[in-house]
Task: structure prediction
Amino acid sequence: MKIKNNQSFTLDKFIEESLYNKTSGYYMKKNPFGKKGDFITSPNISVLFSEMIAIWVVSFWQNLGCPKKFNLIELGAGNGEMMKVLVNTFEKFQIFKNSCHIKILERSKLLRKKQKININKKNIQWLNDLSELDNSPCIFLANEFFDALPIKQFIKKERKWFERHVRFFNNKFEYFDVPFDMEKFVNKIKFKITKQQNFIEYSPQSTEYLEIIFNKIKRNNGGILIIDYAYTDKKMKNTLQAVSKHKYCDVLKGFGNSDITYNLSFSLLNRIVKELSSLTSMNTTQGEFLTKLGILERAEILSKKMLFSEKADIYFRIKRLIDKNQMGELFKVMLITTHKNKFKLGF
Result:
């Protein structure tokens, strides 16, 4: 993508072009996962993470009344590591396996190829759009999906709202803020996002996805499990960041070459569920979620006949996932489902 001097974008447009431009976008041209990439996700840390998700999915399906046909949709499957383990684990649950129709929503053609090689399963359908789903009950999985979608930032200065923009000037990108009609925007999105806020991070794409998902769950039954970098404070804050080669870097300097991400406001997400749907949500931390699902007990069973070094490796990896000073508190988990569904496994 060629950018001209003094060309400007809203922040979300800048992120969209940096991550998803068809030729130069970060996710379109490289595999960012693993030690050789830029970051590591939970499924890459331990196979037990994905095993716990598989057990949760089977249990949630049972809670839905064991529908004879349902869709399991992973939103943004990364390098396919989690789905690969899910598929292998589902082999132990024959009735479930026969009922389960696996779909993956993935924008990156490069990552689709990686997923197909890694998962190596013929019966998986890759979606271009959630409208391709039929009217079966749906279980959606979103592990580090929403944090990779573009966001807008709004700043309140002297009782007036401004929207953050980015411009290319003198061979570099820089931020600048433009006066913004917040009242008009609030009417458009149909809920008062400004309540008790001086700073806002909001992803229009995330809300679009969520509204489609809410309608699917409401109409056909099911739920969505969201696992992501998140915080629960009511006051929103600036969490925009970029990562390259496992280190934080300048958001504006790594255009097309670094992962731009942010931390989800679970307080905002809970409000979106409340304001824009007739569904219900519940939250916990990743550490609590995995512990309640029995990750430590599973590790104990697996490690009984292992050498000490192998056992130590399993527990070292689990510690990364559940310790409150590592990923255990930084990552949060949310289940969004129907009001009548009282399923609480992991919460």
